[in-house]
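Forwarding the complex inputs:
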Amino acid sequence: MTDTTLASGPAGPKPKPAFSRRNIIIYGSLIVICLYYLVPLYVMIVTSLKGMPEIRLGNIFSPPMEITFQPWVKAWAEACTGLNCDGLSRGFWNSVKILVPSVIVSIIIASVNGYALANWRFKGANIFFTILIFGSFIPYQVMLYPIVIILREIGLYGSLTGLVIVHTIFGMPILTLLFRNYFTSVPEELFKAARIDGAGFWGIYFRIMLPMSLPIFVVAMILQVTGIWNDFLFGVVYTKPDTYPMTVQLNNIVNSVQGVKEYNVNMAATIITGLVPLTVYFISGKLFVRGIAAGAVKG
Amino acid sequence: MQHSVSIKDLTLAFGNLTVLDSLNLDVDQGEFIVLLGPSGCGKSTLLNCIAGLLDVTGGQIFIEGKNVTWTEPKDRGIGMVFQSYALYPQMTVERNLSFGLRVAGLPKHDIEQRVKRAAEVLQIEPLLDRKPAALSGGQRQRVAIGRALVRDVDVFLFDEPLSNLDAKLRSELRVEIKRLHQRLKNTMIYVTHDQIEALTLADRVAIMKGGIIQQLDTPHTIYHKPVNLFVAGFMGSPSMNFISGKVARDGDGRFTADGVDWNLKGYEFSTEKGGEAGAVLGIRPEHFGVNGAADGMPITFEGEIEVVEPMGSDTVGWTSVAGSQIKFRVDSEFELNVGDKVKLGFDPQRSSVFDEQSGDRI
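Prediction (whole assembly, two chains):
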């Protein structure tokens, strides 16, 4: 019979003190970082809910004494940029009209690109891929003017369609890389099995690969939505005042030099503009992390 | 008779690297061929070429008399089972089985019948509504076999199908594959690096090394009459004993090495010459007679036991003779102790002699 009585001294899990040096450093730095990001947001929200007299008091951290939604209404529907006085709403719908087609088209093309590059190693695939990746290293500024000329020649300069084409093309390198790496991580035998089962290029893409790759599509969607929604440079260069996207319009509202600086309206306008990417993150955050972990980093 | 699969002068090279070099292989109708070899010997590559998943650099492939060298995989009349199962993760077992048939656009009624029959054969009927993630390794591999089964093909290709399974399941499924072959009588080509699978399943085994088939013969011949040192060393566990020396080709033939001079009476030389400059004598560990059992053997010698390895069903003892370490296998009831003297005996008829330089059997 073995002796089962425990000897004195350590037994079971090692106790972990709540205030160890390690914990203080970890939680301390996390709290500082949180404050760094959250305090500005807090200031924006409280300021946007105050009236101008209250703002003039200068207590930017104090909560509003009288909550008013007037700045939000004004930012959305009444703020003036140049001759137009219909607020951000015009820019919002312009941005939506730019965003939806560019995201859909760029993801469709890039996913097929990535699939072909990963699974159908056609002749010249490597050269094609290298050129594509190289393209993503060229600074946008270099290409601004040539694209202006190209768009002018094909008669799309200043139109939303032109901007959609530009966004689709500029999204290609990074999205193709993303999809290629993801599809490369799909076991090759799966692809072989599908070929023996008789599925062709599109059959394998739609029936095998697509249903397996929801996470990477979400990642691509988030990247594109935030990238295109937040774009300022292309928006200001390739559109006209009538077709300005939301970011450009926000800039024009915030930076208008005439009259009184309406901080509350500016804050409200900024939050409204940031709302779309924020919503996308909150809805698909979990899938985003999973997709990144599943293949976006690997490769 | 027409060969089921016929490979003529097949060469496959990736750039400068030649994986398969002018390979020829004829597989008879209903034959079970195992391609066996160490990793990197080109056995899986050969299978992929037969399946049509790799374009060949040269040569031709015939299946059922039809030249399929340029034919798409789906039109070759083959079904393939992969090591990683390669089940479509988002489809149920039923959808997995029927995928190929749906792609081919078969009528619904036909598909149902075929899936049902395959599921019956493989006893996976209760699993039809499950997704692959909810199956065990053995069940997944059964479904993978089923996927080849429903397509009603002439030739089954297996690419190390049991390598991902644990030892117990592996031996169970091995027997099942053998049963399946006896029942279906299809031609099967099976790639593995496991010699037990090769010996138990095959009608004929093709041992490959460096993209070349070293020996193609029945498991029995391969085991007992290996054509060269590579095959001799590769087949069998514990592996064959090799003793270096020289062979004199006078009379019955004599093998001489450090302190031994053995008359090879009974050994059937397959060549007239060879081994005079250097030869290797190969004896399987289980062909030694020990102590009493050694008495009647034509050749006997004594040694001291250096290491004892009990394997459960039998015991392996190590000793040395003529400067080489050798191992011998005895029943596990047999008592072996380190330091004991043992008398070992063997019959040259059951040994193999190779030329040291070429490595070929003489």
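Residues 5-227 of chain B form a domain with the Rossmann fold fold (CATH 3.40.50.300).
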